[in-house]
Write a structure and sequence with these properties.
17% of the residues lie in helices and 31% in strands. By secondary structure, the chain is α/β, with parallel strands linked by helices. Strands 1, 2, 3, 4, 5, 6, 7, 10 and 11 form a nine-stranded mixed β-sheet that branches. Helix 2 runs parallel beside helix 3. The radius of gyration is 14 Å and the shape is globular. It starts with a helix and ends in an 8-residue tail after the last strand.
Amino acid sequence: MDFQTTDLCDAHEFKVGVAQPIFRDFGGNTHFFGQITTVKAMEDNTLVRAAAESPGNGRVLVVDGSGSLGVAMLGDQVAQIACDNDWAGFVINGAIRDSEAVSEIAIGVKALAAVPNRSRKENEGKTDIAVHFAGATFHPGHWLYADPDGILVSPEPLSMPD
């Protein structure tokens, strides 16, 4: 589906949530959309990798890392695994690493920043719960649309206006 978040926002103004413009594009795809799956974890990307290793079916993994910029929640290896497993992209309330390599992978990645530090591996966190950051709530099963202009969330799939 070709889309612009600006057009979707205009056509579905009272049906969508709009995330605050605090994210940078890091992935090779700057336009991506899909149903939401979530991970909430603080400086531990074990559950992010586990999700990436599962079939993505065109979904978007929303990672609430509590805005931490101390360690990366995603790097090039996990981004490539997710791409290979048909994930559409990531929205990360936190940092990534290997940003140059991630930019070459055909997957959407929005995050706050890049940092060289790797995360802990303690298998801590929660999956498939509603998470709230950047002024938006991300519910598992809802839909996310992202492009260079921003991020929209919707309880149902959106269609482009005629």
